[in-house]
Amino acid sequence: VIPIQLDMTRLMSSEMRRFLFLAIAVCVAILLAYFRSLSTVASCMSLVVLSNVGALSLLAISGTPFSILSTSIPIRASITALMIGTHTLLAFASEHPRVQKGSARATAVLETYGQLFLPNLLMALTTSVGFATLILSNVPLIRQFAWTVSAGIMISWAIVSLALLPILYLLPIP
Fold first, then answer.
1. What does DSSP assign to residue 99?
2. Distance between CA atoms of residues 144 and 67, nearest Å
3. pLDDT tens digits for 50-103?
4. CA-CA-CA-CA torsion for 76, 45, 122, 115, nearest 10 degrees?
5. Nearest one of 111, 120, 49, 57 to 41, comparing CA atoms
6. Is the pTM of this model over 0.90?
7. Which 8-state DSSP code applies to residue 68?
8. 85-to-5, 32, 93, 101, 136 alpha-carbon distances in Å
9. Most buried in the list 4, 5, 35, 72, measured by CB within 10 Å?
């Protein structure tokens, strides 16, 4: 059983590395095609990195071992970060296309942020609650997966929500 687990761990690690670069390249290409702005793409990808660091830190801080099921945590954190980030940046750019720096920009940022705070929270919360229902499982690995993914999604939402304020204020409008 142990040799099989080691082989599976090596295979998963190899596959994750291989497809990570492909997924990042596809995301960057789609974001570039849509926003046509390197700063916007860089901000979205930085949200993904911050979100993953936060979600994976949860595993480390809680002492949760990395398992085959927990390999999906970075995927869920990345999806959460990309959805919230791109949706908010798009809304800001479409509603305030000519706002420059200063008090008008700060007002526009707070307005957009206020409009999207509840929808973004509800998206993360419903996804998190959906995974949290797996805590009722009798299988310990599934229970562990449920709470780590559920908490990871909410941590991703919190990190992205906090990071979006300075990003919206400082970066040029896409």
1. -
2. 10
3. 998 988 888 888 887 777 777 778 888 888 998 898 889 888 888 776 676 677
4. -170
5. 49
6. no
7. T
8. 37, 14, 12, 20, 32
9. 35
CA 13-16-17 angle, 5° bins: 85
Place of tokens 């998206």: 123
User: What does 22-45 look like in DSSP terms, one character per residue?
Assistant: HHHHHHHHHHHHHH--HHHHHHHH
Q: Tokens 């090596």 — which residue? A: 10
Task: Show the tokens assigned to 84.
Answer: 């919230």
The owner of tokens 């919206």 is 168
Both tokens of residue 35? Answer: 């926003």
The CA-CA-CA angle for residues 26, 28, 32, to 5°, reads: 120
Tokens of residue 144, six digits: 């562990």
The model's pLDDT over 3-56, given as tens digits with 9 standing for 90+, comes to 776 777 777 777 777 777 788 888 889 888 888 888 888 888 889 899 989 888
Amino acid at 89: L
Q: What is the CA radius of gyration of the chain?
A: 18
